[in-house]
Fold this sequence. Notes:
This protein has two domains: 12-220, no CATH class; 257-618 and 654-694, no CATH class. A hairpin with a 6-residue loop joins strand 11 (459-460) and strand 12. The chain has 695 residues and is an alpha+beta fold.
Amino acid sequence: MRIFSNKRRPVHMGPYPMELLARSNDARPVRTAVVPPVVNVGEGQLNQALAPVQKVLEQLLTGVAVEHQAPLPADLRERTNLLKSAAYFFDATLVGICAYRSQWAIVVATESGPEPERDNLASGWIAGSEATFRNLRATQIAMILCNFLRLCGFYARGYSQSSEALPDFTIPELAIRSGVAFEAPGDLVNPFTGRALGLSVVVTSLEMLSDRPLDPAAGSAASQGGLTWRLGLSGTRSAMAHWFQDRRASHLSRYPMEKIRKVDRATTRVDENEIPQVPLRASFFARGAAGDLGAKAQAQYPNFVMKEPLGFATRNAQGQMIPLQDGPVASQAADMPNTAENAKAIKSLGYFLGTDLIGICEMPKYAWYSHDSEGNEITARHKYAIVLLIDQGHETMEGASGDDWISGSQSMRGYIRGMEIATVIASHLRSLGFASRAHSNTDGQVLQVPLILKAGLGELSRIGEVVLNPFVGPRFKSAVVTTDLILEPDRHIDFGLQDMCNKCNKCARECPCNAISWGDKVMFNGYEMWKPDVERCTRYRLTNSRGAACGRCMKTCPYNHEGLLAHRLILDLAIRFPMLRGPIARLDDYVGNGRRNMVKKWWTDLEIVDGKTDTPKSGANARELNTDKTDPSVPIAYYPASVMPDGTNADAQLVDRKAAVEVAGTLESPEDAKRRIASGGARPEQYIPIKNLTA
Length: 695
């Protein structure tokens, strides 16, 4: 938690106040033999799970650049800031640049999350694997930067601390030359981080400006950083925040979820006995791919996110990690009978690996897809779900309109991080003798939204099929690990969101395709929700010609904020005093939350067409708040289970929008559903998948 805002701090400056540190004027090459050039992987238990992921990433550090060079900024300062910002966007801790031979080296430094306490089971898992994981994090960022540069037509080669060594210099030496750290006896030191660093390097032909080395004789972080460092006056990470985080239990998120009210059931009606199992084929993105939404949407499906090079830069790694999501289980299970201690260990492991929020729940049958993407029946095989949330990044979202060219990359950033973490956790649990599978956006067998709700990570919101968290709002992506390790489930939470969403129509007002309901909640497939028009939403995201996908609802939600102390206080007021929720929603508009902050607009708008990365021909969406918009009274199309496609049929099954709009007249209100169930009434036929109706 920060006290001071970073709204005026450009993204390329990073999360630490590196601009306060004295720099050396000595431009001579740095040579050292003290700092080890290669990471010591040790004997940690977790290394077994980390190694296959590391191998995938390292294979992608090399590649061939496309022939056409993209129109990256001609100004060297702007170009340098672009690459630094991209690294920070993917969660680099520190970034520096220096000349390397006749090329340039981008040095990326990463840190891991808090290490578990000695009495925490995760401590034994992680011990000896710390450096290995930091190396993996740094390698992932290097891999993405390499792919991005090659897609833009420039040579790029990445190096990790466990890969082939660079000619002439070691990675630590380049870290010193680029001003990321300086050498202390036997180690590299950055005055601010306070933790050991993982390092990677990207060597590229793209000309940039070099950073100067740090001056190791300039003094401590406190003496150089002053109050700016102690308190975070410029909106950066601070010594005070480090102090508080270091004293927080490792199984707790940096967000105080433990202070949110816990309840025994969701704040929206969930009739679990009536919820149908649906096939993966029923997902509207799967329907778009199959041709159910017509030829235009089908043609755009393979490209709708990957037409932007930063998002595309993550794709190969995601595809190659799919086989790692499941695998053989050790023949003998570890002795782990305590559900509470097991849950604490899993959460500590997840936060160490970089998860932002974690919840645990029992696996209901309805949260499993009935059939996979190939039409094969899925067996509900694990008892528990570990739900991981990855923040999509407030800084970048603040500079975006929500449906412009960075939107898809924000999603991909969350997806690759979530997939990587879930894969490592699942693999580790299998090595302990517990059947486990990672489920990612790229390849999964479970519906993640019901699990996010059930794991106590949020409430269903007006956005519709989106769970909203009190601290990051809807600004996250998720991944899931299902497992047979016995775990203590989390309880549902209540922070007053249903009333807040009743009084705030901001997401509906700002939706560019009018897919979000302005009206009341209905019962849909057993859930009480503000049901969105998923068909209209999917069509827009697939065919958006002025951006990649869409996250406008996330951008403009009042719960999408910096997470300052002031925001925590407002959240507390909204929880304690319901009468203030309407004024708080209006205040959000008044102070301009949801507008674009151009200080944070760091990326260059780019589109890949026919293998060439160029300026988008249709331009870019540049939306501001639309405060005068009123309810357009656009009908919403509903596609309940009874009209979902046959999950075993890959052929196009065209949607009947007219019939779907007419379904609105048949939907129950939550009160009607309550009365029906109380009187012993039968489940509505629309909750029954069409294949079962016709059998």
